[in-house]
Structures are given as structure tokens and as C-alpha cells.
Amino acid sequence: MSVISAIFVVLITILMPPAGVFAISGCSVDFFVNICLTLLGYLPGHIHAFYLEYVYYDRKEQNRLGRFAARPAPGVYSDRIQSGGQGYGTIVEDPLVQSEEGRAGATGQ
């Protein structure tokens, strides 16, 4: 399903770059930056849109494999793109932190 959605977003981006960015980031700063770049020139809008899509789908794949990016991607302002679409509505605590809290409680500290 992810491959089909990626192809669909790329096709939308070829026709109109801000629409492709809106599909992955929603109404965010990246969307408005892309509108400005597209108005300045069609090519800068395309470059920016494809870069955001690359970061989004790369982070999404990394999350699927259980690896998380250590640093935010440069020039990306949307948390949705930075996280690969993960993290909305849930907060998952680090298992290491949970086990340390459990040990501290068990030893009476």
C-alpha cells in the first residue's frame, strides 16, 4: 500500500508541487514554503517537494524497520515529515526508561 501511495503522491507532485507537499505534511510551514518556491519558479518548487517526499518516505521506512533518525532533516519544519508520519496521538516511552523505573521501585529507592 505504501508504494502505491508514494507513486500517487509523486504523480500529484509532478503536476502541482504544493499539492504533493500538502498530501504528506498537511497545512504546515513546509506547505507554505513550497507555495512560495513554486511561485518563484516551478523548478525550485519541484526540488523542494521531492526532497520533502524523500525525507518522509525514508523516515517512514526507517520507522518500519525499527530504526529512528538521530537528527532532524535539514530544511524540514513539519513534525509529520520528520517522524515519517508516526507519533500522532500516542506517546511511547523508551523501554529502557521503563525498566530502570521498575528496578528503582523494586529496590526501594
UniProtKB/TrEMBL annotation:
Keywords (A to Z) from UniProt: Membrane, Signal, Transmembrane, Transmembrane helix
Q: What is the lineage of its organism?
A: Eukaryota, Fungi, Dikarya, Ascomycota, Pezizomycotina
Name-wise, this protein is: Stress response RCI peptide
- PANTHER family according to UniProt: HYDROPHOBIC PROTEIN RCI2 LOW TEMPERATURE AND SALT RESPONSIVE PROTEIN LTI6 -RELATED, UPF0057 MEMBRANE PROTEIN ZK632.10-RELATED
Organism name? Lasiosphaeria miniovina
Q: Which GO terms describe its cellular component?
A: membrane
- Broad class of where this protein is predominantly found: membrane
Q: Name the InterPro entries on file.
A: PMP3
**What residue ranges are annotated as transmembrane?**
39-57
List the subcellular locations: Membrane
Do you know which Pfam families this protein is assigned to? Pmp3
Highest taxon listed in the record's lineage: Eukaryota
